[in-house]
Amino acid sequence: MMAGLFGLKTISPHELTKTTSLAVYDVNSKASWGEAHVPGARHLDPDAFERADLPADRAASLVFYCSGPLCQKAPRAARRARDLGYENVRVMSAGIRGWVAAGLPTESA
Question: 20 falls in which pLDDT band (50, 70, 90)?
Answer without folding.
Answer: confident
